[in-house]
Design goal:
8 strands
Length: about 190
């Protein structure tokens, strides 16, 4: 990518990427209804890991999440990506690149999948495609995946995708229940893993 010191607002960042089974794209106005359905279906499984799942959202709440995420995507301050099955158009979860440092070209991938689509390899497939997107489209130097040290399913996604576990940040973040949790940090770094 040329112009590495260009203001991120001027970067021509694609709106979508595809994998074999998924269309992975930036949020668009009107996606709130599908997001709401996926969150409500998956709330029980999301609750231990995602503080935002504590409250049951209305369709309007979910549409506001989508519209704010759209604005952030355009501002290049957070790149939420929605995961859709190519064959049905169903929204099956969300991922994206977060906590970005454009100067260092550092990004963090987050993800969740709706309960009915869990265990089918969709998140590993999405992480592979988003990692490739970050490397080739955004000239990433470092890509991280962070997860609660108790969330072994999330850790396995990082490991399956070739991320190196760099360590555990002890008592790093408050969990949904208010207790302090440890956070596992996985990363891929230019010159080492890619």
């Amino acid at each position: 990518m040329s112009g590495l010191n260009v203001n991120p607002l001027l970067l021509p960042i694609p709106e979508h990427v595809e994998s074999s089974r998924l269309l992975i794209r930036a949020p668009l106005w009107g996606d709130g209804d599908q997001l709401n359905n996926a969150v409500i279906e998956s709330r029980t499984e999301l609750l231990p890991w995602m503080p935002w799942a504590e409250h049951i959202p209305t369709v309007e709440d979910s549409e506001l999440v989508i519209r704010r995420a759209r604005l952030k995507y355009l501002e290049r301050t957070d790149l939420m990506l929605l995961l859709f099955l190519k064959d049905t158009g169903q929204l099956i979860g969300s991922s994206g690149l977060h906590r970005m440092d454009w100067e260092a070209r550092k990004f963090e991938i987050g993800y969740w999948v709706r309960t009915s689509c869990s265990g089918m390899g969709y998140i590993s497939e999405a992480v592979e495609a988003i990692t490739d997107f970050a490397i080739h489209e955004l000239a990433a130097n470092r890509i991280e995946i962070r997860c609660d040290a108790r969330n072994m399913r999330s850790a396995k996604v990082a490991e399956r995708n070739g991320y190196t576990r760099e360590g555990i940040l002890r008592k790093e973040k408050a969990a949904v229940d208010g207790s302090l949790r440890d956070t596992m940090v996985f990363a891929k770094v230019r010159g080492f893993e890619f």
